[in-house]
Amino acid sequence: MQKILPALLTAALLTGCVSQGQEAVKSQVLHRATGSWDGTPYRQYPAGPPVLSLVRLTIPANTTLDWHCHKALNLGYLAEGSLEVETRDGKRIHLNAGDTLAELVGEVHRGHTAGQPATVMVFHAADETLAFSTPEAQCPAQRPAENTALNALLDLVEKRLTTAEAVALHKWDKKQPVQATEREQQVLASVRQASPGLGLAPQRAEAFFTDQMEANKLVQYTLLSQWHLAGQALDTQRLDLTDVIRPRLDELQADLLAKLAAFDQRPVPGCAAQLAVAIANRPLLPAAQHALIRATGQLCDRP
Fold first, then answer.
1. Do 119 and 234 belong to one domain?
2. Rounded CA gap, 191 and 206, in Å?
3. CA distances from 119 to 96, 99, 165 (A)
């Protein structure tokens, strides 16, 4: 959340190198991701001196790769052929030549080719200790599907925070202020109305969602400040605020209320300490961690 897209700056530098009378350099962002293809947010780069690799992976026809995982960030471009990727829990994605893929981190998966070979160009961002691919037996233990109520709630809070960039881009383009009081009042009225049906006190739901919106605005202000400093925002696809972003937020609102109700059903001894540990154990960049802390500011203050 706190990085300026390097490709954007590179494009600006390249454009400045064109002599008068020559055709302008063109730049196209083929893929930009803040999370893997299944929607899981990326949390941080590996610690230590960075090592960047560009790997050409050639997979023969009718081949199934071994189960494996990646412990660092990988972005793939399918140059030739077709490829299907599946995870241990049944998630699948199919790629054709020209498609790009933000790889999973830590989750076991494998790829399949059919009647033709596939050539994949993979950009690998790691350090000296992390291999391009890790066999399943050496992969991190997967967090069980039965997450604790706290972690399940934090997962959704993080997911909602990832929408802040799209909102900030819309407001940059439209020259709109971050503060949207009328929209906030509509959200709070909605959660107050829905909360009794889930066994939540309206005041509890309102306080929790006030924190979600304040955290989202914190991210937006941070991004806008970075873009003003750079003189331009990110060169990436825009999402419509009314037709795409807000319906997505409305879906998350219902899920968050349900997870908050589940969290409140059982007392959490030493809630503030447990919350602090849970957030600290999430490998987040500082800006993302600060936003998560703000979003859970009143979580332990039960009525």
1. no
2. 6
3. 11, 12, 33
Tens of pLDDT, residue by residue over 53-104, are: 999 999 999 999 999 999 889 999 999 999 999 998 889 999 999 999 999 9
Q: Is residue 301 part of a domain?
A: no
The DSSP bridge partners found for residue 111 are 85
CB 254 within 8 A of CB 194: yes
123 within 8 A of 54, measured Cβ to Cβ: yes
- The model's confidence at residue 4, banded by pLDDT at 50, 70 and 90, is very low
Q: Please tell me whether residues 217 and 246 are part of one structural domain.
A: yes
The answer to whether position 303 is within a domain reads: no
Residue 101 is part of a domain; what is its CATH number?
2.60.120.10
Quick one: 61 and 190 in the same domain? no
Looking at residue 281, what is its pLDDT? 79
Pick left, alpha or beta for residue 48 (phi over 0 → left; psi -120 to 50 → alpha; otherwise beta).
Answer: left
- Which pTM value belongs to this model? 0.56
> Phi-psi region for residue 11, left (φ > 0), alpha (ψ -120 to 50) or beta?
alpha
37 falls within a domain: yes
